[in-house]
Amino acid sequence: MLRVAGEKKTSPLGQRKDIMEGLTFYYSWEPLLMEWLQNRLGAFGAAAASFFTMFGEEMLMIVILGFLYWCYDKKAGQFIGTNIMAGILLNPMLKNIALRRRPYFDHPGIKCLRKVDASADAYDIAAQGYSFPSGHSANSAILYGSFPVVWKKRIFRILAVVLPFLVGLSRVALGVHYPTDVLAGWLLGIVIVIVLSALQRKVKNENVLHLILFLMVLPGIFYCRTDDYFTGLGMMAGFFLAIPFEKKYIRFRETRNPAAVVLRLAGGIAVYFGSSTLLKMPFSKAFLSGGSMAALFVRSARYAIILFLMIGVYPLLFGRIIRDNS
Predict the structure, then answer these.
(1) Does the annotation count 136 as an active-site position?
(2) Of these residues, 115, 136, 210, 299, which one is catalytic?
(3) Catalytic one of 95, 102, 107, 177
(4) Which of 27, 28, 19, 24 is nearest to 7 (CA)?
(5) Could you tell me which of 319, 316, 288 has the C-alpha nearest to residue 301?
(6) Which residues lie across from 26 on neighbouring strands?
(7) Which pLDDT tens digit goes with each residue over 263-282?
(8) Coil, strand, or helix at residue 134?
């Protein structure tokens, strides 16, 4: 039986009034399954779930995409990156329509074992995001599901199935998603890989494709009020602006030199954290976390600059950091 409740509630921690707004709907078997699973996890199981969930998180995805784009195969990095940009926006757009609260909000027997935003209140929907569909599940299906589209080896087909499955299972075990969130996330990711991969192959002018995709997700500014949408909007804008900039002015070459690979990845991570820190400095913490439209647009601008620097400008240093013979 599908149970639905639409009332608004206030945070048990006494946070702002709208912090717990959203809808509650679930099949009766879902919280029962989650409680059963958590009761049997133990410390090792919880640690394993936290480990596997990282395969769908932002930081590891940045490292993987950075390795592909900066080092291994620039075109593959652009191809997979475009798929991911679509996913990180379509997912919160759907979340802000469904407005489904996370399971631990409404079921005392379900514990939140890993917050989406570790620095924010666990009950702050603006920071933690809504529940349906699962972003980690969608992102992992897009990232690893794009591998066999680019590379036809059997190992990539195996990774495309195993890693999204483990990520999705971990989200349920950690108490942050209902099983139906995960199923919907996998479906969304598969659809994006199929549709976007086909479009990228058929639309020869990538600037036109990027403009179409950006205009498709832009309506979210009228109804999305969670951080994840505005983060994604900035990332997409920065990524799509950086690609033609790099092609025209930088034109770096990939490398297989181990020392160069390590330096490029380390430098890219430093650019990410360094620029993120610097771009926050002009604003107060209260403003950035306040949830106003101004703060959300500042968030988009910050991430647009960060992605533009990482994808378009940072490769200018390649060859000056280390000379390799690859």
Answers:
(1) yes
(2) 136
(3) 177
(4) 24
(5) 288
(6) 3
(7) 999 999 999 999 999 999 99
(8) coil
